[in-house]
Amino acid sequence: MAQDRFQKTPLHFLQYAGLRALCLFLRLLPYRLAVWLGGAVMAPTHLILHKRFERMSHDIRLAFPDKTENQIRQIAKDSWRNMGTIMAEFIQLSAMSVEQFKMHCRIDGIEKIHALYNKTGGIIHIGHFTNWEAFGLAASAYGFEKAVLAQRVDNPYVDEEINRLRNIFSGTTFYSNHEDKPFFTCLRWLKKKKMLGILFDQNTIANEIWLPFLGRTAAFAPVTALLAIKAQVPVIPVNVERQPDGMLVCKVYDPVYPPTTYTAANVRIFTRTLVDYYETWLRENPASWLWAHNRWKREAEGNAYLKNHPEDSNVSVQ
């Protein structure tokens, strides 16, 4: 990747200054008011980014053909609102003490992580649901030494600030799009028997595995399955839910153990297993997911690949 993509510019600094001003403003407000305001400000975004909203509605329509048009568009609007809520929660939570933080965010099933921490370690399997950043903060606040594999944003000032806030209670970030051989960096971390968080529900552009996702072909990065098999560590699915009172609950599922041998087929099968968790969470609460991602923008490419590689078309989970 070209290094000049991440060069600092005056425009980048102005964007960063705006972010800092927003952080200062939201932190002056009571928590619930700031969170409500974040969602309220983002709610009408569909009127400004009309084309993106229509694409989101199109994706939801294909994923949920049984829903009415009003339901489809409401899911898209609620997804926009959730983005603003996430931003406000993240800004507020990252300025709190650990004790204050725990009043707004908890981990259900934390004993499942304790059972693995410093024994085998493991990979946190989390997606863009509700407030994924809250769990990163929670893992550190509740005493786990963790790292996350993330994508660096183009604005280096903003990226540095987000990374600072993400690790405010401690933590490490590895970049999938700006690291020298990030796979081996992550592998070394896992061998220390620590926890590694990976979001893999974004579109990938290299070394992809083509799988059906909500009835359509999508590209998935095999990194989670590869790391789990190579390091022989379990994968721990985590979904974040927001309660009616605003409490963020990070729900930890039972560990999923990888195949004991590395083969291309095992990587593909294990990746399919992990995708199934995302599909389940999405069907339970469609508006909680970040539909703004153009998740199926390479669908035609994936369909063409699977047509020429029928052996990859059917994946049976073992």
Helicity range: 40-55%
Question: How would you classify the helix and strand content by structural class?
Answer: alpha/beta
How much strand content do the residues show? 5-15%
Shape descriptor: globular
* Mean pLDDT, all residues: 91
How would you spell out the order of helices and strands? HHHHHHEHEHEHEHEEEHEEHH
Residue stretches low in confidence (pLDDT < 50, at least 5 long) are none
Radius of gyration of CA atoms, rounded to a whole number: 20 Å
Number of strands: 9
Separation of the first and last Cα atoms: 37 Å
Strand order of the largest sheet: 1-9-8-2-5-3-4
Number of domains: 1
**Main sheet record:** 7 strands, mixed
Summarize the helices and strands and which ones pair or pack.
Layout: H1 10-27, H2 31-42, H3 45-48, H4 50-63, H5 69-93, H6 98-101, E1 105-108, H7 110-114, E2 122-126, H8 132-141, E3 146-150, H9 156-166, E4 172-175, H10 182-190, E5 195-199, E6 209-213, E7 216-220, H11 223-231, E8 235-242, E9 248-252, H12 264-284, H13 299-308
Parallel strand pairs: 1-9, 2-5, 2-8, 3-4, 3-5
Antiparallel strand pairs: 6-7, 8-9
Helix pairs in contact: 1-9, 2-5, 4-5, 5-8, 10-11, 11-12
Molecular structure report:
With 318 residues, the protein is of the alpha/beta class. The chain has one domain. Helices cover 48% and strands 14% of the residues. A seven-stranded mixed sheet has the order 1-9-8-2-5-3-4, with helices on both faces. It has a two-stranded antiparallel sheet with strand order 6-7. A hairpin with a 5-residue loop joins strand 8 (235-242) and strand 9 (248-252). The mean pLDDT is 91.
